[in-house]
Automatic annotation (TrEMBL):
Belongs to the ammonia transporter channel (TC 1.A.11.2) family. The gene is sle_20630. This is Ammonium transporter. It comes from Streptomyces leeuwenhoekii. Residues 20-417 form the Ammonium transporter AmtB-like domain. Involved in the uptake of ammonium/ammonia (NH(4)(+)/NH(3)). One of its GO terms (cellular component) is plasma membrane.
Length: 447
């Protein structure tokens, strides 16, 4: 993410950069419904709507919080490197229509709406780990609390002027730490509190709609160009273009690596593997893409694709129920991409910082480690505390009967697919009753 500091740059509003950033903001917004499709296809049919809603509700909750105080906490005047605040930004008051973000040629309003879309997406990522079993009210409250005490401060650490990670020199172009490690660690913290789904490692839990998964993955890939290339906050010096290219390159490499591992390990190239591999590559290149070359992007993507493919099976070994592999893809992929900056940074991209393979030694690697493990530890612990607080007060999980029968009907009074009119019902007789639609199961258990 381009830093929130004053740079030697033009001080006049650029219509081109402003338009570019508004388009990028819209692309990042698209990623939240894309994630809903991606996750929605991976669950059993009886949980489809709940999975969609767990992403969509973030668009409402986080948007309102961002206007009220989130933007101020994340990007306001620094306090001790930990949090920001600017009372003029509360309710987005005191911001002029043409007031520019410091050092850039885009209005403050454009910067804040771009950042808003990141804040919306990040808690939605967590939801995939909690499929089938969380009360919707509890989830909505968790999103509000988590955004306030975890996402807004961490965004300040990493991208805000004066944030400790920013000042240390941690490189996170578009969210490896602030978004993906943050969400992945939070997912682990919450599932350690709420426990496993009924039937975990016993019942088949296959995706009910792989076409929906592929649609979601494709839309995520598309939106990610705005997520990554837009994070330079302009299009004047070619760094955003480098990030665009590296986003495509790393994603393709990761998909190939995941499929190769899957073929060797399980004997087949699956559509779910292709979609998951692509997302793993997108995650990993997010922090690194402005610092590495396209050849480096191939390495980052390939390493991430392989590591994430291996990591998704760890939940069966260690017994934590990460329903849709948020930890295996986002936490592991975010760590991989962030740490690989310390090896593959060329010194010719977003800054002159070089990694180990380009003569820079291990100095940047240790900085990356500091950012990665600080965010991981903070998000893991605080998220677990929040989940425990909600679980002991209003309760985090639905009842066992509701989980078995289907969370869609229990929490939303709806079902994803209505087959009541299928098959020409008027022509049926009492002797030939309409067949009952049997719900498909979700993800296959990979022992």
């Amino acid at each position: 993410m381009a830093p929130a500091i004053t740079l030697a740059a033009e001080t006049e509003l650029s219509a081109a950069n402003t338009g570019f950033m508004l388009i990028c903001s819209a692309l990042v917004m698209l990623m939240t419904p894309a994630l809903a499709f991606f996750y929605g296809g991976m669950v059993r049919v009886k949980s489809t709507l709940n999975m969609l809603m767990m992403s969509f509700i973030s668009l409402g909750i986080v948007t309102v919080l961002w206007v009220l105080y989130g933007f101020s906490l994340a990007f306001g005047t620094d306090s001790a490197g930990l949090i920001g605040w600017n009372s003029d930004w509360v309710g987005l008051s005191g911001i002029g229509l043409t007031e520019l973000w410091d050092g850039y040629t885009i209005p403050v309003f454009v910067f804040l709406v771009f950042q808003l879309m990141f804040a919306v997406l990040t808690p939605a990522l967590i939801s995939g780990a909690l499929a089938d079993r969380v009360k919707f009210t509890a989830w909505a409250l968790f999103v509000a609390l988590w955004a306030t005490v975890v996402y807004f401060p961490v965004a300040h650490w990493v991208w805000g002027a004066g944030g400790w990670a920013f000042e240390l020199g941690v490189i996170d172009f578009a969210g490896g730490t602030a978004v993906h490690i943050n969400a992945g660690a939070a997912a682990l913290g919450v599932i350690l509190v709420i426990g496993k789904r009924i039937g975990f490692k016993k019942d088949p839990m296959r995706p009910h709609s792989l076409p929906l998964v592929m649609l979601g993955a494709g839309l995520l890939w598309f939106g990610w160009f705005g997520f990554n290339a837009g994070s330079w906050l302009g299009n004047d010096d070619g760094v955003g273009a480098l990030m665009f290219v590296n986003t495509q390159v790393a994603t393709g490499a990761a998909m190939l690596a995941w499929l190769a591992y899957e073929k060797i390990r399980h004997g087949a190239f699956t559509t779910l593997g292709a979609a998951s591999g692509a997302v793993a590559g997108l995650v990993a290149i997010t922090p690194a893409g402005g610092a590495v070359s396209p050849l480096g992007a191939i390495a980052v993507g390939a390493v991430a694709g392989l590591l994430c493919a291996m990591a998704v099976g760890l939940k069966y070994r260690f017994g934590y129920d990460d329903s849709l592999d948020v930890i295996g893809v986002h936490l592991v992929g975010g760590i991989a991409g962030s740490l690989l900056v310390g090896f593959f940074a060329t010194g010719k991209g977003q800054s002159d910082v070089a990694g180990l393979f380009y003569g820079g030694g291990l100095d940047q690697f240790w900085k990356q480690c500091a950012g990665v493990f600080a965010v991981l530890a903070y998000s893991l612990v605080v998220s677990a505390v929040l989940a425990l607080l909600l679980d002991k007060t209003i309760g985090m999980r639905v009842s066992e009967d509701d989980e078995v029968a289907g969370i869609d009907q229990a929490e939303h009074a709806e079902t994803a697919y209505d087959f009541s009119g299928a098959g020409g019902g008027a022509a049926r007789t009492a002797a030939a009753p309409a067949p009952v639609a049997v719900p498909a199961e979700n993800r296959k258990v990979d022992a």
